[in-house]
Amino acid sequence: MSNLRICIYCGSSRRCDPAYLRAAARLGRELARHGATIVYGGGAVGLMGALADGALAEGGKVVGIIPGFMNKLEWGHKGITELHIVSDLHERKRLMLRDAHAVVALPGGSGTFDELLEAISLKRLAVFLGPIVLLNTQSYFDHLLLALERCVSERFMDPRHKSIWSVVNEPEEVWPAIQSAPPWDSSSITFAGV
Description:
Rossmann fold; single chain; 7 helices; alpha/beta
């Protein structure tokens, strides 16, 4: 069993295709089976809720971090292992990533993209060194991946930066992708600039 802390970014939409919710629940169950602690945004609905509920159903540990204003709106999940109330979105992002061994991004909206791109930037700058895995359910991240490829082809990023992240299509592929991620260390700062 693992004691890895996995930071997960995902959406909270109640209106998205149920296929996204099913994939999130499967991922939660899968990570719980491996003994990982899930650290996520603390929400009770959408992919957030499905992820947490899937993990809890397998006896997993789920830590939520939510800004106070969101918790006042009753957005927080009341059944998770720990729910931490923080002052704002910036603190939430910092605490979610702090002590994380890996990041997994599931489909979501602008907040999810913000969190994911910050993690990619921090890894590029050798601040965060763990694996980053995109769960590309229903090809959701295809356009973002094309944009990142364009960053490289237009020389805003180094070709080596493409190994910052990996992409899988099924929840059951996430754990192996975390385990097999190429090493990334502080020396990567030497090619952070292009």
